[in-house]
Amino acid sequence: MGARMAANMIGSGRALLLYNRTRARAELLAAGNAAVAETPAEVGERTDHVFLMLTGPAAIDAVLWGEQGLLAGHCRCRIVVNMSTVPPAYNRQLAEKLKERGIILVEALVSGSTEAAAAGSLVLLAGGDEEALQQVKPALASMGSKIMICGGLGRASSMKMVINLLLAIFTGALGEAVTLGEKCGFSAAEVVDTIFAGPIDWGFFEAKAAMLREDAFPAGFPIKHMCKDLGFLRQTGDEVEARLPLAQAVATLYEEAMAEGLSELDFAAVKKIFHQ
Ligand SMILES: NC(=O)c1ccc[n+]([C@@H]2O[C@H](COP(=O)([O-])OP(=O)(O)OC[C@H]3O[C@@H](n4cnc5c(N)ncnc54)[C@H](OP(=O)(O)O)[C@@H]3O)[C@@H](O)[C@H]2O)c1
Fold first, then answer.
1. What CATH number has the domain bearing residue 165?
2. How many angstroms separate the CA atoms of 200 and 213, rounded?
3. Burial, 204: exposed, middle or buried (Cβ in 10 Å; 0-12, 13-18, 19+)?
4. What is the whole-number distance in angstroms between the Cα of residue 53 and the centre of ligand 1?
């Protein structure tokens, strides 16, 4: 996701200093106005605005507070935009810690997968300090087609929990329904074509329908990340005392898929476990 998003920022004429743990991935983007930093500390020393697109809290902590982390050197960065999917409580704590260093945290989580990231058509769920958000908005606009302003810090990540809960449930439901069709003697293609001929012709499922028809699940959003996010959103549900029985039920399915070695496949591959 990060590479595709960075490519669109570069394409919009921005000068970028890139850092990725596996340097070779960042180097693929290096040309013209885009250079590669040796360490996150170097990024902090040379840039005002930093955009993070990382797996989750552990990766962010390593990049920010590690030995060569963003804050290890003479960090001149004033705004950090966290685009990674994390629970709202994490972003709130992170904002407090960064504030002590004079840095403002902005949230800009993304809705949409690798195709939308490549096309620059992500929907961005943004929030936090309004002035800081205004400053980074042009950069955000180069990565997404829509910016939804969700309000104070923690609200954008809360909204992302809502979206991913629906994605987890719908995709699990699709896998279960198609499997029932197959057990009744239809091919996956027949079931999918019939589902999509009717009122459940949801745009989101188009990409998943192709995967189900072909029984091939190259990852857009991998099962391991859906498991991570189901953990985050259930934790969030506990914090706000929301009952999430479906989240609990589908989490079991995606965890089973992980245990079956499907972690790197797209989360639509959760369908595979219904055949066992
Ligand atoms: N994929 C999607 O469709 C999608 C959609 C919406 C939101 N998201 C969210 O966007 C974020 C990124 O997703 P992705 O699909 O791009 O994940 P990804 O392909 O697994 O990339 C994760 C990135 O984090 C880095 N990273 C992981 N652990 C690290 C550590 N300990 N220290 C330093 N860097 C570390 C990786 O570096 P290396 O290259 O060195 O491994 C890589 O750059 C996640 O929060 C995900 O939930 C993903």
1. 1.10.1040.10
2. 17
3. middle
4. 6
Q: Taking a C-beta distance cutoff of 8 angstroms, is the pair 80, 105 a contact?
A: yes
What is the token pair recorded at 241?
């005392």
Residue at token pair 């990060």: 2
Binding-site residues, ligand 1, Cβ < 6 A: 1-2, 20-22, 25, 53-56, 58-59, 62-63, 84-85, 110, 113-114, 220-221, 225, 229
Give the residue among 275, 230, 270, 237 at the shortest CA–CA distance from 253.
Answer: 270
Q: What is the pLDDT of residues 106-157, one digit of tens each?
A: 999 999 999 999 999 999 999 999 999 999 999 999 999 999 999 999 999 9
Q: Report the domain count for the chain.
A: 2
146 and 201 housed in the same domain? no
173's CB contacts (< 8 A; 6+ apart) are none
Q: How far is CA 268 from CA 40, 176, 251, in A?
A: 34, 11, 13
Q: What is the pLDDT of residues 177-227, one digit of tens each?
A: 999 999 999 999 999 999 988 888 788 787 899 999 999 999 999 999 999
